[in-house]
Automatic annotation (TrEMBL), chains A, B:
EC id: 6.3.5.3
Principal location class: cytoplasm
Keywords, comma-separated and alphabetical: ATP-binding, Cytoplasm, Ligase, Nucleotide-binding, Purine biosynthesis
A cellular-component GO term for this protein: cytoplasm
First-level EC class: ligase
Gene3D superfamilies recorded: Phosphoribosylformylglycinamidine synthase subunit PurS
Record field: catalytic activity: N(2)-formyl-N(1)-(5-phospho-beta-D-ribosyl)glycinamide + L-glutamine + ATP + H2O = 2-formamido-N(1)-(5-O-phospho-beta-D-ribosyl)acetamidine + L-glutamate + ADP + phosphate + H(+)
Entry protein name: Phosphoribosylformylglycinamidine synthase subunit PurS
Subunit structure: Part of the FGAM synthase complex composed of 1 PurL, 1 PurQ and 2 PurS subunits.
GO biological process: 'de novo' IMP biosynthetic process
Amino acid sequence: MKKVKVYITLRESVLDPQGQAVKDSLHNMEYKNVQDVRIGKFIELELDDTADIDTQIKEMCEKLLANTVIENYRYEIEEGVMQ
Amino acid sequence: MKKVKVYITLRESVLDPQGQAVKDSLHNMEYKNVQDVRIGKFIELELDDTADIDTQIKEMCEKLLANTVIENYRYEIEEGVMQ
C-alpha cells in the first residue's frame, strides 16, 4: 500500500480571491504582519502499489485532481497508510 | 520574511464526501487500485517574522483557517518567500 500526498496550488500568475479574503480577515484580526496568503488543495491518496505508479498519479492529477490551466501540482509517495 | 505552510485535514472520524466522490471518479476512470482519498486545504502564508510567530500561527489556525471541531491542522515554518 502506498500513501500519496498531492499539493495543488494556483499558478503564480492567477489571482487568488480566496487568499485575498483570508489575508484581509487576518489583518482585521490585527495580524498586520501577514503579507500574502495562497490557498490550495492537499489531497491524500491511499492506493495499491503498481509498477507505473508515477505515471498513474500524473494522469490522475492531470485528468481529475488539478485544473492544469490555472493550477500546478506536485506529489510525494510514501510507504504505508494514512494516519 | 517567513513562509508558513499550513495543512488542514479532516479528523479521522469525520466523513469525507468530497474524498468519496473523487474516489468514485477515479474508479470510473479505471484506477481501481485507489483505496481511499482525503481532501484537505494547503495554505501558504508569507509574513514578517515576530518573536511569537508560533503562537500567532496557532491562533490564526484556531480562529480562522481551520474548523477545529472537524479539522486538524499542522504547519511548517520556512525562511524566505513563496515560489
